[in-house]
Design goal:
Layout (H helix, E strand, L loop, with lengths): L3 H7 L1 H32 L3 H27 L2 H18 L10 H24 L9 H9 L1 H20 L1 H20 L18 H13 L2 H7 L2 H6 L7 H4 L2 H21 L1 H4 L5 H19 L5 H29 L2 H29 L5 H22 L19
Helix pairs in contact: 2-3, 2-7, 2-8, 3-5, 3-9, 3-17, 4-5, 4-8, 5-17, 6-13, 6-16, 7-8, 7-13, 9-17, 10-16, 13-16, 15-16, 15-18
């Protein structure tokens, strides 16, 4: 198996794809952190910030089934480039948000950015196995899985500091430049980002293509198990809403920082599990359970350093869960369906996050924050137990009926 360092240093196309992912995730933080500070200052209300988050999450979730179809039909490199340019234009719209009367522009701008993210994510995830050799898949997934955590630590921290030092509009310009660089990095990837398509077959229309993917998932218990696994952590994600209630501004920053650190370290250290498919399903159940138990723990401890440690453990488990499920899906799903299946996977996770956040928002003002933490952790733990019972007879070591990604080059 290739080492993590060798994949980064020797595989130029993977390196460019990974760097583009880092830049895209970083740009997102350079937009959202300053914007969520700017809008209350301009309007005197926190409603606009909540609306921005709802638009961002909701549009991505609704678009994913269609953008997954696009990722399977068109050149994924071009999709990524167009998405980055579209996000750049959306970010530039934010430069017009200067008063309460122009706050609506923020919703329009984030709507454009969300559409771009909905296009970019399935294409980038589906493309990953195509830039890796078979012996590089485990290390490559571990590295790619750490991208979000890396930029949660780096991007969120820098976005907050620079927003305070140079202002939100400078941060928006930095994000725009970064997105232009990400488009450039995608452009210089040499390998094809999808397997050759049968030219004799006419392209499918959107709805039949979506139905085909859903039928594929529904008739394959292993794939169905894998596309539902991220929902466990998603349903517990409402804990983020109560971070500010556990500590002051500095403490909240630390909580988000250790969250990102856990999401960074988890995928890297889970690589050993990726090298043995027999461990993947048990590993997924353990990671979900650990996330739930860690947040139940935060509800009963009062020493803040221990709270930080438990949050780190929770998101270490969440990051591991994410990369293990992605890696397992890559081995199960053929290239022609991979964009749609990954889009369905992301849509279910995003909807679970939205449900959790809405549920917490409905009770956070009347229920103690630690009860909310325990409730979110318990939901994830119960989901994990039920998921493992439902999947106990499945095995990822049985042969895949269709060619696995990377099997032939």
């Amino acid at each position: 198996m290739a080492s993590t360092l060798s994949v980064l240093t020797r595989n130029r196309d993977f390196r460019n794809l990974f760097l583009a992912e880092l830049v895209v995730f970083g740009a997102d933080w350079f937009v959202m952190v300053p914007l969520l500070v700017l809008l209350p200052e301009l309007t005197g209300s926190g409603v606009w910030g909540a609306l921005v988050l709802a638009v961002d999450t909701g549009i991505v979730a609704l678009l994913l089934p269609f953008t997954g179809t696009i990722a399977d039909r068109f050149d994924r490199r071009k999709i990524m480039m167009v998405a980055n340019v579209g996000a750049l234009l959306g970010v530039l719209l934010l430069l017009g948000v200067r008063s309460a009367g122009t706050a609506w522009l923020a919703l329009a701008a984030i709507g454009v950015v969300a559409v771009a993210k909905g296009l970019y994510s399935p294409a980038a995830q589906a493309a990953l196995p195509n830039v890796l050799e078979p012996d590089q898949l485990a290390a490559g997934n571990a590295i790619a899985g750490s991208a979000w955590g890396t930029m949660t630590v780096v991007g969120a921290s820098l976005g907050g500091v620079l927003s305070q030092q140079v202002g939100p509009y400078a941060c928006f310009w930095i994000a725009a430049v970064g997105l232009a660089c990400a488009a450039g990095l995608a452009a210089i990837i040499r390998r094809p980002l999808q397997a050759p398509r049968d030219q004799d077959l006419p392209p499918q229309r959107a709805w039949p293509a979506i139905v085909e993917a859903l039928r594929y998932i529904g008739h394959r218990p292993r794939v169905l198990a894998l596309v539902t696994v991220k929902s466990a952590v998603g349903l517990g994600n409402g804990v983020l809403t109560v971070f500010p209630l556990l500590a002051g501004p500095a403490g909240t920053g630390l909580l988000f920082a250790v969250r990102g650190a856990g999401a960074l370290v988890g995928p890297i250290l889970s690589r050993r599990v990726l090298t043995n498919r027999r461990w993947l399903l048990p590993g997924l159940a353990v990671s979900m359970s650990l996330y739930g138990l860690a947040y139940i723990g935060t509800a009963v401890v009062s020493w803040f350093p221990l709270v930080l440690l438990l949050v780190f453990v929770a998101h270490f488990a969440g990051g591991s869960n994410w990369v293990m499920s992605n890696f397992a899906l890559q081995g199960e799903v053929p290239d022609r369906l991979r964009g749609r299946v990954f889009a369905t996977d992301m849509m279910l996770a995003t909807l679970a996050i939205s449900i959790s956040q809405l549920a917490v928002a409905a009770v956070v003002d009347v229920v103690d924050a630690r009860v909310v933490l325990a409730g979110c952790g318990l939901v994830t733990l119960v989901y994990a137990i039920g998921w493992r019972i439902a999947t106990r007879r499945l095995s990822l070591t049985d042969p895949v009926l269709e060619p696995a990604p990377g099997a032939a080059r």
